[in-house]
Amino acid sequence: MRGNWRSKLSVLVGASALAFSAVTATPALADDAPEAPLEVQVPADVEIVEGIAPEPGTEVPFPVGGTETTGTADAVASAMAAPPSNTCLGATAAYGSSGCFQHNGDIVWAGDTKKDGMSAAIGVYTDYGRAEAVCINKLGVNTWATCNKDYRETGNVRLRVLRYDGDTGKFYQPEAWSGWIPVDGEY
Q1: What is the distance between the alpha carbons of residues 77 and 132, in angstroms, rounded to a whole number?
Q2: Terminus-to-terminus CA distance in the chain, angstroms?
Q3: Rounded average pLDDT over 142-162
Q4: Are 163 and 116 in contact (CB under 8 A)?
Q5: Less packed terminus of the chain by CB within 10 Å, N or C?
Q6: Rounded CA gap, 150 and 167, in Å?
């Protein structure tokens, strides 16, 4: 009898913990505005790479909605959304930022989707111990920026999508993570 009571209590505690974690760990959707930016800690030795506008005519991973633009006319014109491309993997989005990994050339794409004074930031982690790098899109809202990196072809990368405040050098939530993406593009 006593063992049966303990097993029922164990099931009840486990179910309660699962329900609590589901309620408290639900990530913000890409269009959900945060109540207030919450700072995220990143390693002090993280390499911050400022993304560049893709060459004019380059297909971007997927359109960044809206018509607001900021930044120089040339940078905005070349970074605006174009038809979707099938070569970008691990598409991940959180409020104000979208990102993916293009295995042809090891290119990280960072899309800024909200006019809020912050930049899109796409952190890249590897499964083989390479130091983290973050690709920052400072081109303005509704633009894409690229960071060209060189990763080991036998490895995997994982993306972390955040917001970045260039004035303070701090990163903010909401954030989202991709799954592991093979560098060679073959799942």
Answers
A1: 30
A2: 50
A3: 95
A4: yes
A5: N
A6: 28
User: How sure is the predictor about 15, in pLDDT bands with cuts at 50, 70 and 90?
Assistant: very low
β pairing state of 156-165 and 97-102 = unpaired
**Tokens standing for residue 74:** 């040339």
- 156 Cβ neighbours under 8 A, 6+ residues apart: 126, 127, 180, 181, 182, 183
The predicted-structure confidence for 59-76, as pLDDT tens digits, reads as follows 877 765 543 333 444 444
Mean pLDDT rounded to a whole number for the chain: 78
Classify residue 134 as exposed, middle or buried by CB count within 10 Å of its CB (0-12, 13-18, 19+). buried
3-state secondary structure 125-165: EECCCCCCEEEEECCCCCEEEEEECCCCCCCEEEEEEEEEE
Record the pTM: 0.72
